[in-house]
Design goal:
The complex is a heterodimer of chains A (about 110) and B (about 110). By secondary structure, chain A is mainly beta. Chain A is built from no helices and eleven strands. In chain A, strands 2, 4, 5, 9, 10 and 11 form a six-stranded mixed beta sheet that branches. In chain A, a hairpin with a 2-residue loop joins strand 6 (about 55-60) and strand 7 (about 60-65). In chain B, strands 2, 4, 5, 6, 9, 10 and 11 form a seven-stranded mixed beta sheet that branches. Chain B has a four-stranded antiparallel beta sheet with strand order 1-3-8-7, with no helix packed on it. Chain B starts with a strand and ends with a strand. The interface between A and B is medium-sized, with 24 and 29 residues.
């Protein structure tokens, strides 16, 4: 069964600090991995998408990494801002599943002043 | 949220009533999806449609129904057969049934009184 596990479930950091969120997956055969940001009560918005051949991808202060051998991904947030407070969701797509996605449970990040 | 709209934002229903959630997109996307989100869990697929007048059950279709009479619209009906309908419902669309990014609407929070 395809699964995506994220850790930690929740995280509190001070404004200006860095943090790293983790994602482990068992989706096979792997097609691509996406990180979404979801503000409370809103729909998810895409941050990055990586295919098998990509190891890292950045979007401003967000940097995602992918290790397809160990089936792990991370999302690093640099110099956090209060607006980074949100849930971050790891989503994996399988090659034989069309556009069907497997979602992680998300990491709830709170940035405090 | 792109060109996807969902209405209403909040919906209250009495037990035994059917309710319909609206989802409209002006992105000219072929595929549309309905997800359910519960606290601490990953998004779960209810129904999806790859083309007008065609739709498929997702992982948790019981107690739900959909229609796809127009490319722009994919309404979801939550019937009285759905035992635990209180949740956050998200609609998404993508350009085609390929490996393209899914764009999400702002969501509808349904509460059963």
């Amino acid at each position: 069964k395809n699964q995506v596990e994220q850790s930690p479930q929740s995280l509190i950091i001070l404004e200006g600090k860095n943090c790293t969120l983790q994602c482990n997956y068992t989706v096979s055969p792997f097609s691509n991995l996406r990180w979404y940001k979801q503000d409370t009560g809103r729909g998810p918005v895409s941050l990055t998408i990586m295919t098998f051949s990509e190891n890292t991808k950045s979007n401003g202060r967000y940097t995602a990494t992918l290790d397809a051998d160990t089936k792990q991904s991370s999302l690093h947030i640099t110099a956090s801002q209060l607006s980074d407070s949100a849930s971050y969701i790891c989503v994996v797509s399988a090659n034989n599943a069309g556009n069907m996605l497997t979602f992680g449970g998300g990491t709830r990040l709170m940035v405090k002043p | 949220d792109g060109g996807i709209t969902q209405s209403p934002k909040y919906l209250f229903r009495k037990e035994g009533q059917n309710v319909t959630l609206s989802c409209e997109q002006n992105l000219n996307h072929d595929a549309m999806y309905w997800y359910r989100q519960d606290p601490g869990q990953g998004l779960r697929l209810i129904y999806y449609s790859q083309i007008v007048n065609d739709f498929q059950k997702g992982d948790i279709a019981e107690g739900y129904s959909v229609s796809r009479e127009k490319k722009e619209s994919f309404p979801l009906t939550v019937t009285s057969a759905q035992k635990n309908p209180t949740a956050f419902y998200l609609c998404a669309s993508s350009p085609s049934d390929g490996y393209n990014e899914q764009f999400f609407g702002p969501g509808t929070r349904l509460t059963v009184l």
